[in-house]
Amino acid sequence: MWTDALLAYAHYASILFLAGYLLCEYLLLRHRDTPPDPAFLARIDIGYFIAAIAVLASGAGRLFFGAKPAAFFLGNPVFHAKISLFVLIGLLSIAPTRAFLRWRRLQREDTGWRIPADQQRRVRLLVLVELHLVALLPLLAALMARGIGYRG
What are the Cα distances from residue 7, in Å, to 30, 88, 121, 125? Predict the structure, then answer.
């Protein structure tokens, strides 16, 4: 019982951290007057990556060591939709990560360099799409927890 509760807590907390890091990236990219520091964006993105790993690890823990058997999840199409959505979010996050690293390198090479507005706008839009998709994860989790989609 304690194991399941602690795994659930770790899973929920890591999802909140993941959303928090994404929100932080979005808010920093939103400013048009003062462009964000690319090195700071890259550090925040590392936190996002660590949170994503924590989501995966705690989710795997819940799958294999939680109160519900693995068959409850593996036989549920809602679970597969949730995993697919998480993978999609991860794939979408590749472009912002590459941009942050590229911007950091360009700023190190030329301290007067500024993030081009069109690139900042594109990356901000991608991060916003990620945020909206992350908001769907708890819905899928709630459906799954109530047995919706389960065919056992």
Answer: 35, 24, 37, 33
